[in-house]
């Protein structure tokens, strides 16, 4: 086992010389899930004016505790007039606070008689007023480069009236499935054949990690065809294969990669996922495509995608949040022992006042994909460890 490399060495090789992809400008309405290429500076205060936090009456706090005439009505979206001294204004949620007013009393506390309102005493200045710029000040950094544009960030940009954003181009990924025994769903199975579970699983993960899967290709157990298909696939930014990286006579991917490209790393001291190849493939223009060869076992592919594809795509997108998974310390809800390889166990996380407990799926075999369906995290068990129930362990939280 001396030739097996730790995951830290694999990540170093994987991310060496990776630079962020080029920039493109797209409509905000099409930017969900994309990564900002440039910081955005606020041009407007948010909110842009003092406004009411509720339906009620706007007034000067010093006038509280008496009947006041209602001098104006302010609905959201209408311009307020200066408040007449000794009066109040009927105001609705989001309505502009009229100049001269400094507080709002909720309507449930007010007694109304025609055009007069009895205001309770002791209303503090600033009560129920959302001040201009409370959320965002003009000139401040609204969002930083590398921010992934999810729901709240999109709303933040729209609140500035922004319609176009500069984002990183999505990495183009070619996804290759190897093996004569792997066939697509919809085709009757013959003896010895398996349906391709890796392709839809990895395609979804890659897309969740920000990639654009531009091709899905089946590769037969043939060395010459493997070379030809890898060569063609190198037009993508990243080539991902499943299977064919072990040491069997029909495993041609590693040999083809070494023949036409560069093998940076092979065989890791992790479980599942020992036979994992990292490298580069040449293009006609002299540039290179990145290559990640995942094992064919579906759990190994699932784990490898989170451990390697996610940080690689994060580097290509200039998105720091994708380059590492959040770590949670938990109490082991199981007992286990490891050999010379670090084990990534599929677990659910259970939260209670006593802390976090990691419950492991009973069958951790690399072919049992059902262990990944409801997994919240990978419990990382170091090599040569004996873990007893209740021991503190580190877990990688699976957050896309």
TrEMBL record:
Which terms are listed as keywords in the entry?
Magnesium, Metal-binding, Molybdenum, Molybdenum cofactor biosynthesis, Transferase
One annotated GO biological process: Mo-molybdopterin cofactor biosynthetic process
Among the GO molecular function terms of this UniProt record, one is: metal ion binding
Q: Which SMART domains match?
A: MoCF_biosynth
* First-level EC class: transferase
Pathway(s): Cofactor biosynthesis; molybdopterin biosynthesis
Q: Which Pfam families match?
A: MoCF_biosynth, MoeA_C, MoeA_N
For this protein, what is the EC number? 2.10.1.1
CDD domains to which the protein is assigned, alphabetical: MoeA
Q: Which reaction does it catalyse?
A: adenylyl-molybdopterin + molybdate = Mo-molybdopterin + AMP + H(+)
Q: Name one GO cellular component term.
A: cytosol
Domain of life of the source: Bacteria
MoaB/Mog domain sequence ranges: 174-315
Cofactor requirement: Mg(2+)
The entry's function note states: Catalyzes the insertion of molybdate into adenylated molybdopterin with the concomitant release of AMP.
Which PANTHER family does the record cross-reference, listed alphabetically?
GEPHYRIN (PTHR10192:SF5), MOLYBDOPTERIN BIOSYNTHESIS PROTEIN (PTHR10192)
Q: NCBIfam families annotated for this entry?
A: Glp_gephyrin, molyb_syn
Family, per entry: Belongs to the MoeA family.
Q: What is the protein's name according to its record?
A: Molybdopterin molybdenumtransferase
Instruction: Give the species this sequence originates from.
Output: Halovibrio variabilis
């Amino acid at each position: 086992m001396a030739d097996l490399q730790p995951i830290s060495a694999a990540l170093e090789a994987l991310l060496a010389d990776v630079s962020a992809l080029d920039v493109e400008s797209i409509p905000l309405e099409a930017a969900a899930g994309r990564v900002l290429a440039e910081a955005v500076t606020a041009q407007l205060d948010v909110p842009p004016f003092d406004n009411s936090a509720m339906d009620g009456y706007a007034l000067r706090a010093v006038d509280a505790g008496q009947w006041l005439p209602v001098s104006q009505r302010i609905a959201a979206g209408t311009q307020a007039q200066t408040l007449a001294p000794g009066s109040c204004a009927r105001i609705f949620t989001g309505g502009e606070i009229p100049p001269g007013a400094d507080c709002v009393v909720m309507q449930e506390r007010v007694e109304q008689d025609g055009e007069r309102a009895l205001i309770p005493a002791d209303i503090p200045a600033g009560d129920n007023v959302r001040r201009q710029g409370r959320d965002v000040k003009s000139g401040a950094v609204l969002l930083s480069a590398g921010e992934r544009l999810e729901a709240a960030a999109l709303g933040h940009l729209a609140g500035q009236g922004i319609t176009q954003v500069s984002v990183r181009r999505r990495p183009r990924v070619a996804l290759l499935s190897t093996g004569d025994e792997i066939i697509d769903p919809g085709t009757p199975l013959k003896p010895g054949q398996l349906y391709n579970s890796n392709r839809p699983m990895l395609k979804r993960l890659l897309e969740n990690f920000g990639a654009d899967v531009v091709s899905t290709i089946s590769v037969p157990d043939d060395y010459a065809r493997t070379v030809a298909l890898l060569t063609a696939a190198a037009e993508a930014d990243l080539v991902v294969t499943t299977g064919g990286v072990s040491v069997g006579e029909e495993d041609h991917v590693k040999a083809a990669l070494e023949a036409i490209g560069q093998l940076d790393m092979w065989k890791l001291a992790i479980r599942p996922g020992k036979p994992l190849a990292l490298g580069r493939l040449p293009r006609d223009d002299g540039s290179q495509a990145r290559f990640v060869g995942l094992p064919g076992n579906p759990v190994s592919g699932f784990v490898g995608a989170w451990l390697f594809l996610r940080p690689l795509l994060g580097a290509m997108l200039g998105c720091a949040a994708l380059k590492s998974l959040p770590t949670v310390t938990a109490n082991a809800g199981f007992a286990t022992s490891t050999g010379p390889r670090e084990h990534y166990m599929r677990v659910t996380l259970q939260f209670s006042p006593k802390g976090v407990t990691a419950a492991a799926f009973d069958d951790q075999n690399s072919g049992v994909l059902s262990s990944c369906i409801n997994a919240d995290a990978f419990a990382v068990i170091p090599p040569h460890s004996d873990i007893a129930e209740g021991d503190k362990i580190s877990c990688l939280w699976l957050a896309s």
